[in-house]
Amino acid sequence: MSIEFIGYIGGHQSSEIQPRSGPVLQPEYVEQVARAHEEAGFDRALVAFHSTSPDSTLIAAHAASVTKKLQFLIAHRPGFAAPTLAARQFATLDVFNGGRTAVHIITGGDDRELRADGSHIGKDERYARTDEYLDVLRQEWASEQPFDYHGSYYQVEGAHSAVRSPQQPHIPLYFGGSSAAAIAVAGKHADVYALWGETLEQVRDVVTQVRAEAARHGRSIRFSLSLRPILADTEEQAWARAERILQQATALAEQSGFVRREPPNEGSRRLLAAAAQGSRLDKRLWTGIAGLLGAQGNSTALVGTPEQVAEALLDYYDLGITTFLIRGFDPLDDAIDYGKRLIPLTRQLVAERERQAAEKVA
């Protein structure tokens, strides 16, 4: 199986240990970090979405204008634009950037955040709406003839897109969400199901569930895992760096008046369940930041030398993970470092693993 690395493009430089300096959207930084990811050998870069953030599609369009090969994973929340319109927007972008677009569907688990954009329905209803949204989106991408759709949330008549993505059969759909309702929709629609950085046991369990759900629809599905690698020349230095990151994050959280609250989504609850088992799990999974900040998003790390972290990634690869979404606590510098020391090594180890498997079959 081929392996994919996805990085992260923010509108500005910040992290749990770096407060933002300057405006929330800095075009020069977007250009710099996009070029850095391309030079580092990332396959794609994620552009995130939040109810307060700049538009992810437009950031990806700008990043594409200063790169040639880097592909993009655009986080998109269904329910706030008509699916027919969104389908044409993504297809238009995909023509302009030469087939470098993928869409990451994030339905959203935080009721309070969703109300900021005018959504007041509950979680299960949101996933029912997402199901219909993706029905229409995919038909708009694929249908050669005008089509009608009559659902509970969307009704269209004579829908048709004159613009076509260069990617066939359609633009790839990634999907996040850990609840039972989310997994049901993922099994029906997703090309890639995205997990946060959980323990090997947790990942094995979710992969099994999602595969079974996809099989109900006669589909196969790929899997992505999000992690925050912390690298150093020795294992001791890597763990010392992790401890410094925790101290810096703690100080910044106290300075900003961060208040930890009940996690709003199932993914965060799963990460906190892992953190409750300890700060160091499996070979080198570190839950320090997840435990500190309530597992708000991608917040678990693999800690060690590049060789040790690459070997840990292979443990997940053996469970069916073929995409790794990685970003550092020093976003730009870490992306550059991953390109030098982690990505090529991991690709080499995967190639060796695949070659050995092929030789056994032969």
Automatic annotation (TrEMBL):
Protein name per Swiss-Prot or TrEMBL: Alkanesulfonate monooxygenase
A Gene Ontology biological process term: alkanesulfonate catabolic process
PANTHER family in alphabetical order: ALKANESULFONATE MONOOXYGENASE, BLL6451 PROTEIN
Pfam name, any one: Bac_luciferase
GO molecular function: alkanesulfonate monooxygenase activity
CDD domains noted in UniProt: Alkanesulfonate_monoxygenase
Keyword Oxidoreductase: yes
Xref: InterPro entries: Luciferase-like_dom, Luciferase-like_sf, SsuD_RutA_monooxygenase
Keywords linked to the UniProt accession: Flavoprotein, FMN, Monooxygenase, Oxidoreductase
Coiled coil: none
Domain Luciferase-like: 18-322
Domain of life: Bacteria
Gene3D superfamilies reported in the protein's UniProt record: Luciferase-like domain
TM ranges: none
